[in-house]
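In keeping with the milestone schedule agreed at the kick-off meeting, the structural modelling team has produced records for the first pair of proteins. Each record is given below as a sequence line and a structure-token line. The laboratory manager (R.T.) confirmed that both were archived under the project's standard naming scheme.
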Amino acid sequence: EVQLAESGGTLVQAGGSLRLSCAASGFETDDYAIGWFRQAPGKEREAVSCISSSSGYTFYSRSVEGRFTISGDNARNAWDLQMSDLKPEDTAVYYCAADDEAGYGCRVLGEQGTSTGFAFWGQGTQVSVSS
């Protein structure tokens, strides 16, 4: 059973940096995608970034491109989201998710805008950015 656990969320000032981590386990193969999503109060969940573990394909939403970086590797079973130049609008609960499509879930997200391939989800970690 795939299990995901996020950590690193906290309160930070605007302009600051923060690193979120996703501890992942239970994969039957090394081919999967890890995605970071977020949901702010009163808003729909939105995709932030994803990466395919074997191909290295990455996707970033326009709102975070250039400020956030996704990284990680199978050896560590840990996937990070480095966030810099944080803005109050980045405030949200951030979720780590994994696909069940051998990593293609990230490419589908990036090219078609759909996250249906992400079948496994963590509990989320709160990021609050003060102005």
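The second protein of the pair:
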Amino acid sequence: QVQLVESGGGLVQPGGSLRLSCAASGFTFSNYFMHWYRQAPGKERALVASISNAGGSIMYADSVKGRFTISRDNAKNMVYLQMNSLKPEDTAVYYCHNPRFASWGQGTQVTVSS
């Protein structure tokens, strides 16, 4: 079955960086777009970044443009989110997702605070 396992979250000061990782299994990873979403307390889950199956097409939410970078390694079935210049408003649980399947992982908590 489809499994998505996120890691790499933590507590970081404003202006800091984190790199999130997502290990995918249960489907042919290289055939699908992959996405990172986040859900802040009291808010709906929101799309952060998307990457096409070969990595040639990338999209970012306006709130993270210029600060976050999505990438993937199809040989390892991994998708990554490099987050720089973090702000308190980036605090959320971050999830990777393939919308062709219903499964979500457990997410990884990112907290940006001094």
